[in-house]
Each structure stands twice: as C-alpha cells, then as structure tokens.
Amino acid sequence: MVVALFGGVGFAQGTPRAATTAPTISVAPVTASVSAGGTLMYTIQVDNDRSGSKDLWRVDVTLFYDRGTLTLVDSKLRSRHDWVSEVTDGKVTVQFGSIKHGDDRSATLVFQVNPAVASGAPIQAHAAYHWWAADTNRTGNCHIDDVIVAGAHVTQPVSIVPNAGPPGTVFQITASGFAAEERVVTWLNTPGGVRALTLAGKASTAGNIRLQFESAGLAPGAYGLVLHGTDTEREVVLPFAITGPSDRPALPPGLGE
User: Fold this and answer.
1) 152, 174, 190 — which closes off a domain?
2) Are residues 87 and 162 in the same domain?
3) Which domain holds residue 62?
4) Are 103 and 46 within one domain?
C-alpha cells in the first residue's frame, strides 16, 4: 500500500471501495407435490435487508418451465411498481421496481398442470435473476426443488346446506383442500356487487373447515359465498339463493335502497 503525505495528513492510495452486498433472491414452489390437472404456484421472494445492501432500482426474475407440463394462468404481485414484463413459450419474467435497503418484495406465479402428466413424474423448473443498483449490477441463478405429480386431480368436496332459504336462514358450510391450519376469510357476491364479511376461520390440520353463515337482512336473489385461503390463495365459491319475502323493515313510500 502506498501512503502519500500532504500537509501532515496521510491517506492510502488505492483503498478498495466497500463491496455492495447482494440481495437474497429465491424462487420456490408452494407445495412439494401437486395433482395432475391441479394448480401449482411458485413464490418469488426478493429480500434487500442484508447488512451492506444498497437501494435497488430494478430486479428481474425469470422462471423457465416446460410448457408441455405447465400453463401460466395467473400472477399475483404485491406492489404496483412490479409487473410481468415478458411471457413467452416456457418463460415468464417478473420485473420488480425500486426496492430500498431494508425492504422486501414478492410475487406468486400460478400454473395449471397438464392433466396428462403421469403420476410420480417430477415437474422441473429453474430461474435466473438480474439486479441493478446505482453503481453495479449482477446476474445469477436460483435452484428450484422439483415438484412431484401425485396423481389425477380430485375435486375437493364443498357444500352449503341448505342451498336456498328465506332471509335469516343459517347456512352450514363445509370445504376442504386448504393448507393445514390455514386462515380462511370470506366475502359475499351479491346481485348488487361484492360485500365484505367478518366471517372467517382456520382450517383443520387436514385442510378442512366448517363455518356458519346467517343470512338475516338479505333480499331475495342469487348469491355466492366466497372462501379464500390466505396462504394457498385457494378460492371456493358456494352459490345459494334467498327466497320468499325479505325480513328487512319496509321503507317509507317514495324511498328506495
């Protein structure tokens, strides 16, 4: 190391600059197995919270897959700054916008598995990334565990009993196919739009759930009660009908709803 002296002050020439710490980027399937004809989800996670990391102004993550085995059907992004920038045969790229030091970002890609895939076959995928910071950019690859096809897709049983009744009817709801102890929230599709509900519950260790929904105050018509798993994002729509007169108080003449 060469040291130069100016005015009694010494400094080192050629001192290396501190290296930028790379973000942690991973791509993983939500489940280790999937039914032929079922839904397979991959989660992309970008963590920029390591010591020495810098603000990132862009991160691209590309997932490569066999288009004969998987068909991309949906994408779920957490931030309005992120988007699916490219979808071609066997390749999908998610572009994450600015990620500041200490922040993280994620996205979920949803695929439909070809029903003809043989039981026991592995579903293979791999991913690559490219990130940019103010003074550097780097590329790399992500290892993705194989997912095993478990067999033919089986429709998970769901029911709402009764499927019709007058206002005030208490409907008994059963559903399965959720993750063990997954939180399940609900909302109501009504003839006039979507209505938020406080009804929620937790699935059993076997992925089953039972709920009760009281229909007091609903006008006659066709409805759909939606169950949504907050981890798997599995959604079940249970249609039912309200029949007979409404139990709401009559409105004064000339007033509408």
Assistant:
1) 152
2) no
3) 24-152
4) yes
The pair of three-digit structure tokens given for residue 2, joined into one six-digit string:
């060469």
Please tell me the distance from the alpha carbon of residue 47 to that of residue 18, in angstroms, as a whole number: 20
CB 239 within 8 A of CB 161: no
- Residue 1: inside a domain: no
**What is the C-alpha separation between 29 and 109, in angstroms, rounded?**
9
**Most distant CA pair in the chain, distance:** 96
Question: Position 28: which residue type?
Answer: A
pLDDT tens per residue, the chain (257 residues)?
443 333 344 444 444 444 557 899 999 998 888 888 888 999 999 999 877 778 999 999 999 999 999 999 888 888 889 999 999 989 999 999 999 999 999 999 999 899 888 888 999 999 999 999 988 999 999 999 999 998 655 556 789 999 999 999 999 999 988 888 999 999 999 988 889 999 999 999 888 999 999 999 999 999 999 999 998 888 888 899 999 765 545 444 443 33
User: Considering 105, 130, 152, which residue would you say is the last residue of a domain?
Assistant: 152
Q: Nearest CA to 228 among 241, 209, 215, 244?
A: 209
Do residues 56 and 127 both lie within one domain? yes
Rounded CA separation 122/130 (Å): 27
